[in-house]
Design goal:
This protein is an alpha/beta fold. The chain has a domain of about 220 residues: NAD(P)-binding Rossmann-like Domain (Rossmann fold). Helices cover about 40% and strands about 20% of the residues. The strands form 4 sheets. Strands 3-2-1-4-5-6-11 form a 7-stranded parallel β-sheet, sandwiched between helices. It has a 3-stranded mixed β-sheet with strand order 12-9-14. The longest helix is centred in the first third of the chain and has 22 residues. The protein starts with a strand and ends in an 8-residue tail after the last helix. It binds nicotinamide-adenine-dinucleotide and uridine-5'-diphosphate-4-deoxy-4-fluoro-alpha-D-galactose. Nicotinamide-adenine-dinucleotide binds next to α1, β2, α5 and β5.
Length: about 350
């Protein structure tokens, strides 16, 4: 059966670009909406080289209702995957109004345009950050909501809005995908994570030390109650995550109203384990020092991914070693990301 067109907001970004590749490979025509606030148009060109099929780019802002209305009038959109938004936890503490404007306001604008166009299929990029400091690991979807930053709160609010919209409009089907720690890059080394400025997250930081852009990694604490004392997270390969979105689209009709689904491996890796795996991938030692704990960090955090397997028939395939090998291929080939000359 012919696949119907999917609108991917934020499709030029890290997770969005990998998802576009998987959507095109699965036969979905794709329309990307992105304002390139945190990405580069070259990412779209690379996606076009990696996957055949129809990929249209609209440069615009998800907060711009006229732009969205035009887009829905011109394209026949069957479903939306909504990645566009801001994601820096620290920045969200300094500029909460900006985060609520873009993440909550942008989603409301999108929902209104969808209601007008009678488009009722929505896949939302939520985050495991909605759980805050979890009371138990692995974390199930019915765990307590306790976001600790305006970023996390904006994701929780959007989940609530979408849940109410799905309740009010029985034809709507919404997947609230709660990602754990997305890492890795496409196996080609042609697309990957391309942070502007110093990375906050472990993988891009380690990668920049490995390639010589930064001097050393600071391990934020080695006195946690974990197997080697360093923090433990559920690192999920971005291609697995991208395929989770294709699975969500394929099973959306079977879901009940708005359904929250964890996307993680269900296996934790520690900072030391990531460091060792990356050293193996790049073939040389990575300089590091141990610093104090980072405020707000938790010791152990990983998903209960059973619901994703049950509802979407999806489970993650790739391990940390594979994520390090793919990240290194991208980072060593393009040390300055999409701006590499
Ligand atoms: P990213 O910054 O690489 O991608 C977001 C994309 O949205 C970028 O291309 C950016 O230019 C675009 N964008 C931002 N504001 C926009 C606007 N107003 N209008 C149109 N486009 C806009 O981030 P990512 O890592 O790919 O994350 C994608 C989504 O997944 C985000 O919603 C993020 O909160 C969520 N998420 C990410 C992680 C993670 O660790 N990367 C974890 C959990 C959830
Ligand atoms: N870490 C270091 N050194 C670094 C960076 C990170 O030791 O330079 C450690 C952290 O302390 C943590 C682990 O590596 O133990 C992972 O840290 P990340 O910053 O990569 O990931 P987090 O789990 O802290 O962040 C994730 C998501 C955010 C989300 C946040 C909420 O990336 O989007 O969880 O807790 F908001």
């Amino acid at each position: 059966m012919a696949r119907k067109t999917v609108l991917v907001t934020g499709g030029a970004g890290y997770i969005g670009s990998h998802t576009c590749v998987e959507l095109l490979n699965a036969g979905f025509p794709v329309v990307v909406l992105d304002n390139f606030r945190n990405s580069h148009p070259e990412a779209i060109e690379r996606v076009r080289k990696l996957a055949a099929g129809s990929l249209k780019l609209v440069t615009g802002d998800v907060c711009d209702s006229a732009c969205l209305e035009r887009l829905f009038a011109e394209e026949s959109i069957a479903a939306v995957i909504h990645f566009a938004g801001l994601k820096a936890v620290g920045e969200s503490v300094a500029k909460p109004e900006l985060y609520y404007r873009v993440n909550v306001g942008g989603t409301l604008t999108l929902i209104e345009a969808m209601l007008k166009a009678q488009c009722s299929r929505f896949v939302f990029s939520s985050s495991a950050t909605v759980y805050g400091d979890p009371q138990e690991v692995p974390v199930p979807e019915n765990a307590r909501f306790a976001p600790e930053s305006p970023y996390g709160a904006s994701k929780a609010m959007v989940e609530r809005v979408l849940t109410d919209v799905a309740k009010a409009n029985p034809s709507w089907r919404v997947a609230l995908l709660r990602y754990f720690n997305p890492v890795g890059a496409h196996v080609s080394g042609e697309i990957g994570e391309d942070p502007l400025g110093p990375p906050d997250n472990l993988f891009p930081y380690v990668a920049q030390v490995a390639v010589g852009k930064r001097e050393y990694l600071t391990i934020h604490g080695n006195d946690y109650p974990t197997r080697d004392g360093t923090g433990e997270r559920d690192y999920i390969h971005v291609v697995d995550l991208a395929r989770g979105h294709v699975a969500a689209l394929d099973h959306l009709d079977e879901l009940h109203a708005a359904t929250a689904i964890n996307l993680g491996r269900g296996i934790g890796g520690t900072v030391m384990e990531v460091l060792r795996a990356f050293e193996k991938a790049c073939g040389h030692p990575i300089k590091h020092v141990v610093g104090p704990r980072r405020p707000g960090d938790v010791a152990r955090y990983f998903a209960d991914p059973a619901q994703a397997e049950k509802l979407l028939g999806w489970r993650a395939e790739f391990d940390i070693e594979r994520a390090c090998a793919d990240t290194w291929r991208w980072q060593s080939r393009y040390p300055d990301g999409f701006r590499t000359r």
